[in-house]
Amino acid sequence: MGVTISGMTGRGSIRHNNRSFSAANIDRSRTELNVTFCQEDLKQVYHQVFDEALAAYNAKKKKTRDKIPDYYEHIRQGKQEKLFHEVIFQIGNKDDCGCGSLDGDRAAAVLAEFAESFQERNPHLRVFNAVLHMDEATPHIHIDFVPVATEQTRGLQTRVSMKQALKQQGFTSLGRNMTEWRAWMDREKQTLVELAQAHEFEIVSLGGGRKHMDLPEYRAAAQRLEAVQEQVIAADQELADLEKKKKALGGTVRALKAAEKVQVRLDTIQPEKTLTGAVKGVTVEQVEQLKAAALRGVQAEQRAKEVEAENRRLQGMIPSTKEKLREAQAQQRVEQENRRLRVDNEYLQEQLEEERSFSARLLAGIDAALDYLWEHLPEPLRPIIEKARQLISVPDIQRPEQKQERGHSWGDMSL
Q1: pTM of this prediction?
Q2: 51, 154, 320, 328: most buried, per Cβ within 10 A?
Q3: Which pLDDT score is estimated for 24?
Q4: CB of 146 within 8 A of CB of 125?
């Protein structure tokens, strides 16, 4: 049996993963079969990992405004990095590895091995929540982690950075089509493939990724994809039915044409008229034959007309059905292209935010340097510093407004 390996990412919901609330697609009778590998409080993980580096960073800052009181809040309110990331992995689908089936249980065993070795493979991705779900259509695992970059020269020595964390694990960007994230995800999928093959699964394909979709967005996208697939299936079935009807009608037409060749031998009937004009010499049997022949002729003619009309109708429907099929396939390709464009757009947005953040920090550094010169240079030189301020025009750095906790989430499970 051939199955597909799927790996996804999105905006994570820890409450959903840990079943603090129930979604409509959850079978509560199977929730007790879920397996929790790791479940830690995210704020506490931030304190454990970053407090020492935060203290060292703040000790170097003279101005209170330059210090970071709480690194968790600093990342939550910022735009450059996310509090945490989530990945979801799955083997097969509800048809070949559904929950409750033997192959579903085998798939769950593979996913458990994968989860247990995830932290060892990824020392710079601090896992704080990992759950295997057995109460939905197909077994799948959610892994939530904080990317931790160490020995950094900018900002905290130990800080949150997905790009730098993956770089320290050996993954470098080769351009938009192969970012650090994609290279790392390919490695993780390959690891899952090898574990699945060790359990005698035949892997036929690797499912594509879907980036940063919350649960309502995912459901809407899944419904659109399912609708397109249903249209394709319906069009294929309709086309097959039309071909069958065409063949059946062809046989009927041939039978009617053969029937037309069967005629009553009327030359054996030789009627004679009497003096009064009546017909003699025609038996009752011959009259019945004439009636039957006339009736068959009328029926055959009517049936031929009906068959011809139905045949024309069906012939006219075939191009329409083929057009529907082409449109459904085109729509499916558009959906796939839109998903790829969303991935590329997010990557560009991340790069833009990183550049903006760097510019802001650079201007803030210049501002601090001018403050220092103002305090330590002789007063006659202060006009020069003031002139420099006017030329550079350092803007005030405003803290962003408080936002909701962000992270990656549950993405596509139609895989």
Answers
A1: 0.51
A2: 328
A3: 66
A4: yes
The pLDDT tens digits of the residues spanning 73-82 come to: 999 999 889 9
Nearest to 213 by CA among 108, 327, 91, 335: 335
String of DSSP letters for 346-407: HHHHHHHHHHHHHHHHHHHHHHHHHHHHHHHS-GGGHHHHHHHHHHH-PPP-PPPPP-----
Q: d(Cα 145, Cα 333) in Å, to the nearest integer?
A: 33
Instruction: State which amino acid sits at residue 116.
Output: E
Q: Which residue has the tokens 């597909």?
A: 4
106/89 Cα distance (integer angstroms):
14
Provide the residue type at 405 as one letter: E
Q: How far is 358 from 80, CA to CA, in rounded Å?
A: 10
Q: Between the CA atoms of 173, 176, 177 and 179, what dihedral angle is there, to the nearest 10 degrees?
A: 30
Note the pLDDT tens digit of each residue in 251-281.
666 656 655 554 444 445 555 666 665 555 5
Strand, coil or helix: 275: coil
CA distance 107 to 143: 16
Q: Are 316 and 310 in contact (CB under 8 A)?
A: no
Pairing of strands 272-273, 35-39: unpaired
